[in-house]
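Changelog note: in this version the structure field was regenerated for every chain. One regenerated record is shown below for reference.
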Amino acid sequence: MKIVLLVVGKTTDSRIASLIADYSSRLSHYLPFSIEVIPELRNARSLSLEQQKEREGEQILRSLTDGDWLVLLDEGGQEFRSVEFSRYVERRCASGTRRLVFVVGGPYGFSPAVYERSREKVSLSRMTFSHQMVRLFFVEQLYRAMTILRGEPYHHE
């Protein structure tokens, strides 16, 4: 199974981008992983918040294939401890799904169509983080999950 992190807009902070690249590289030792970037909307200022969500949602949905298991990284989603998240990933990998796609939406959230297409929502915290930081936190937690599943000494509990 391949895991994809789908994000809206590039990571603009070079320090965060460097850390994301480091963890992404580490992940490649465990499973196929990629980050797919949906370009930010042009002329977004001329659109209402709802229009922005709708257009981003259309782009997100076009990036998916029929068999994808879509998981939204959403503040209202299920929270996990790191060990629980590793078991979650293990179960999803064993399910036969070809692509497990986690999505970080735009600044105003997801459109109703994206919520409808999603299978689950996962929250990284009850706190609010910048979308740039969420990317880093997610790839680090996914790396941590892989090391937990392999019994490697990265995670201490």
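Spot check on this record: Residues 6 and 103 are 5 Å apart (CA to CA). The beta strands are 2-8, 33-38, 69-79, 99-104, 120-123.
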